[in-house]
Each structure stands twice: as structure tokens, then as C-alpha cells.
Amino acid sequence: MIDPDVVSLSRMQFALTALYHFLFVPLTLGLVWMLAIMESVYVMTGREVWKRMTQFWGILFGINFAMGVATGVTMEFQFGMNWAYYAHYVGDVFGTPLAIEGLMAFFLEATLVGLFFVGWNRVSRVTHLLVTWFLALATSLSALWILIANGWMQNPVGSAFNPETMRMEVTSFSEVFFNPVAQAKFVHTVSAGYVLGSMFVLSISAWYLLRGRNVDFAKRSMTVAASFGLAASLSVVVLGDVSGYAVSQNQKMKMAAIEAMWETEPPPASFTLFGIPDIENRTTHYALRIPWVMGLIGTHSIDEPIPGIHDLVDDAKSRIDQGILAYDAMLTLRADRNNRQAKAILAAHDKDLGYALLLKRHIDDPRKATPQDIQKAADSTIPNVPVLFWSFRIMVACGFYFIALFAFSFWKASKRQLDKDRWYLRLALCSLPLPWLAIELGWIVAEYGRQPWSIEGVLPTALGVSSVTTGQVWTSLGGFVLFYTVLAVIDVVLMVRFARKGPDGLGLWPPGQPSTAPAATIIPVQT
Length: 527
Prior knowledge:
single chain; 70% helix
């Protein structure tokens, strides 16, 4: 039998490291494009202030990038440490985009980051600008490949189970690459990163204006952030709709849980604006519904229903029954690889094999499962409804708030009144944590909502763990918590220190004010 403590602790460890790592990745995705925009203006106009802006925000980008790499490495170690069977079972599929992403992150990105910092006085303006733009593209390409891998976990297309190797194998790399879930996740995730990068620049610039420091520098930075942030926040909402549609087509239980939709409604389904989901009684109290909205978002139609949780549980029971046939055929083939009847049965029911594996948490041999065991396994396909319900709504509320804030900021920038209202500057400063909150909640919706699957419909999370003891997992978990706490302290100290110093304190003098130090002192590595 599976040790539930090992499963829970392994999940906790991976969740903590992933959530922490995801604090840095979106900021890298967004801030690098701000650098590209600012440096483009510098090259086109020749105005020194834009170069100084690029260099200053580049310092903060460099700190964040280094932390992102450090936390990303430890995540990959966990596939061998805590999720060995997962790596064995799906490594042929999952490992390919993950390896390409590693090359992108550790070779291409690292090289371009180095050129960005040391190249200011060593290459021409245009060459350095090209380095910055290639760096922006490389970060997006890195995100693309990891999200292709993650998208396959949500929607495992282009692959099939091989009974001879007992592993999942790629049948069509193009299907894996063009997976609709992966593509939707990519555009939505990078857009969220753009929002975070814009808010980061907007909030810190507002802090300078509140203190009357670096006024010209801060106003220009806020203008770029407001413009880019408005476009990004609008795209997040639009692309979030695309992502939601992909979920409704491929992860119906996740969609039902997000909506706390226990019963299938007549199409088009309503959207529950507010409610209190009750897992025990399987109902939603005090539900405030908006007619048609969920049906239009989830199906892009007015005549297609969104299945409720109860109907999806019944469907899971049926698939478990079919999966038991596939499981029996698989064991037969292990003993006799040439058994034609077993091959035919497995080919007919291999898509349901993963559902039979859900029984492994309750009984060693799924073929001996009782109706009660099957019911427990089917009920386990329901994720934590209240967590998904509220995480999604808070995330969406943040998204609409970002649109309003950036739109207002853009209007003030167009009127040249960014420094006129202190309440607005305080609001912009206090809004800094909100994009991180929205992004982390989005990750929870995407990953926690997939439970009990590590690979949707293919491999239950409980089966993916390594053969380790509870004590070993506690030891590694404690080590990661200690290591990440140290990194968190270092990151916060560095970010706050350099932000408080500002461009004036770092020797990045405003245009028109002479420098008394050699140009090399403005290179972030030497600051």
C-alpha cells in the first residue's frame, strides 16, 4: 500500500519549492521586456536618461534572475529524489521539453545576461540593444518549453502507453508542442509576467516620487510601465478566457470545481459570483449567480452544457471499470507479450488505465476492487473545491483591478500629472504585492486543481513518489525550507537595498549632471 504521509510530504515539498520559484520567473519575464523598451528608446533618441533607466532596472532584473536560476535547479532535483516513479513512467515525454528548457535557461539566457551587463562599454549601441531583445525572446522561449511540459501534464496528447516498456512514450512531438492547453498556458503566463514587471516598475517609481527623488527618471519609468502594463493586463483577461476554454474542454472536473458546480446546469451555465462551497453536503450556500456567463466563457456557445461534479464522478466510476480491464490485460502482457487478446483489450481501454491506478491508493490489486473501493476512487477525483473556487475569484478580481490601475496611470501619464496626487502614488506603491498574489493563486488553480493526477487521466499523484521514508522526506523538506529561507532573506535585502539607493545612489547620474567616476562603475556587477 502507498504511504499517505510520504505522498503528502512530497507534494508539500514540491508545492513550496514551485511556489517560491514562481516568485522570480514572472518578474524575469516581464521586467526584461521593460528593459528592451527603454533601451530601444535610448538607441532611437540618444538621450542618456533612457540608458540610465535601462541600467538601473537591469540591476534589479539581474538579482531576480540569479534567484530564479538558483531555485529552479533544486526543483529539477526533486524529480529524482521524491518523484522517481513519475520520472520513470513519463520521462520519455516530459523530459524532452524539460531538457530543452534547461538549455535555454542555463546556456542561452545566462550568456545573454552576461553580455547585457558587461557589454555596455564594449559593444555598439545597436549590438547591445540586440542582446537585450534576444534576452527578452530567450526568457519567453524558456518559459514556452517548461509550459509545454506542464501543459502535457494537464492534457497528455501525442503520447501512448507502451506495455513492453511500461512507460509513456511520444507518438507525435508536434501534438505535444501544439497542445492547446500548453499554448493557452504559455500566453496567459507570460502576459501575467508582463503585468508583474510593469507593476514592479510602477510601484518603485511611485516610491521615488513620494520622496521627491529621481523625479524625471521615475516619471519616465512610470509612463513606460503604465503603457505596457495596460496592454498586458488587458491581454491577461482575454488570454485567460482562452485558457479557461481549454480547461473546460480538457479538464472538466477542474472547471466544475472552480465553479463549485455540483449539478450539470442547462446550457448556457451561469457564473457563481459569490458562494460558500460545502464539500460535505456537496452544495454551494448563498450562491449569487450571473446567468449565461459561465456557459459563454467555458464553451463559447449557448447550447453546450458544462458537466457538474456529480455527473463527472459517475463518469469516473465508469472509466475505472474500463480501466480495470486494461490493467488486467497489461498484467497478462507482462507474462505473455504475444497474447493477442490482451493486446486488443489494452488497445481498446488504454485511455482508462490511469483510472484503474486510482484504486492503488485503496487496494493493492485493482482487479479485486469492491464497489466501495471504486466509489472512493471516483470521489477522489474531486479536487478541493473551496480552495479552487476562492483562488480563482481573487485572481480574477486582481486582474480587473490591474486594468483599472494601469488605465488610470496611463491617463495621468498622458496628462503629465503622475506626481500630482499622493494618494495615487501610495495606491501604486501598495499594489506591488498584488500581481504576485494573483500569479501564485493562478498556479494553485492550475496545479492543485489537477489533483489527484500528476498526469491528467494517466498517472495518479500517489503513484509517482519515490521509495523513500517519511523521515527522509522530512529531512529534505527541512533542508529546502532552510535553503529557501536564506535565499529569501538575501533576495529581499538586495532588492530593498538597491531600490532604496536608487539610480542616484548607484552612480547612475541624471542627464546633464556630470559624472565624477569612470563609466565602468555603472556596471551592476561592480556596483
